[in-house]
Amino acid sequence: MSSPFEQARGAFQAGVAHFQAGRWAEAEAGFRASLALAPAMPSTLLNLGATLLKLGRPHESLATLDQALAAQPDNAEALGHRTAALAALDRREEAADCLARMLALDGSSGSAWSMLGSLLKDLDRPAEAASAFRNAIERGGDAELNRYFLAAVTGHGAPDAPPRRYVEMLFDTYAAGFDDHLVGLLNYRAHQVLADGVRGLGRRFAGALDLGCGTGLCGAQLRPLVDRLEGVDLSANMVAQAAARGIYDALAQDDAAHHLAQSAQRFDLVVAADVFIYVGALHPVFAGVARLMDAGGVFCFSVEEAAQGEDLALRGSLRYVHSERSIRALAQEHGFEVSQLARRAIREDQRVPIPGIYAWLVRR
Fold this sequence. Notes:
Elements: H1 4-20, H2 24-37, H3 42-54, H4 58-71, H5 76-88, H6 92-105, H7 110-122, H8 126-138, H9 143-154, H10 164-174, H11 178-185, H12 190-199, E1 205-211, H13 217-222, E2 226-233, H14 236-245, E3 250-253, H15 256-262, E4 269-272, H16 283-292, E5 298-304, E6 312-314, E7 320-322, H17 324-333, E8 336-349, E9 352-363
Parallel strand pairs: 1-2, 1-4, 2-3, 4-5
Antiparallel strand pairs: 5-9, 6-7, 8-9
Helix pairs in contact: 1-2, 2-3, 3-4, 3-5, 4-5, 5-6, 6-7, 7-8, 8-9, 15-16
């Protein structure tokens, strides 16, 4: 008959196997069985803490990891998981401190430096965030992504567009609770403002493209006004949410500019609600819309408004801002007349309205 220690080791190994296979509930059961036989084993507590994070229980994870760290205060892996638990609980200051402690023990991880930079950015500590992003690049972190983050906190060297994988990851993660968060918490109304403007034109459209359609908030407003409605979004999860509404005749997962450059469809209405903040430079988009639209077609969109003297800039929020001057210049260059411009908030951030420009353009 095996000893209690051997039984504990067997339960631990079973927990590890379940964890590696993504069977979180079974992994938890294995680690708890091991702890019942060999209480307070730091390695088992560490793995249980990581499992509880996967199960979406950060409070329990934090308590478990604190037990592991009481026995091994310099366990870098436990500190990393503890950082994730604190971040999940929105305790960012503590998360940043915990991650800095981990990096003081082992500063070789580029991804850990990048995470520290993101936490410091959110804590409005841009100089420290910039240093962390530079460390991330020096230590092999994703150079494109960290240069984008660095540009956002320094105001220098912003790329014309964000890294595609950043936008995909952001909205794939955001998709499930997107509507409730954006409309309910952030008081987002851009889709309604743009659709109201389209309704005010008093006409019906043969073909409409909802550019950056997200979950279909804007599409639901447009559906009664159009014969055919298509949507495109970079996020696969957003496209799936939009498809579930059952309002689109066709949906595509693609980058906005690429889709406009490749599509064979014609549209007399193209709408982009709160999309260009994650596009950046708009020349390719305007060229693509002009390619697919005949005279009299309507192109309407919202942007976050740039400060006076700016035309295009990347903010610390990781969103791009645009100016009225740049909109008018793009319209002139690509064959559009500015029918109407309006200044209204796009959404709120920390209960502060974000200034926006709404534009309705007509193809010449």
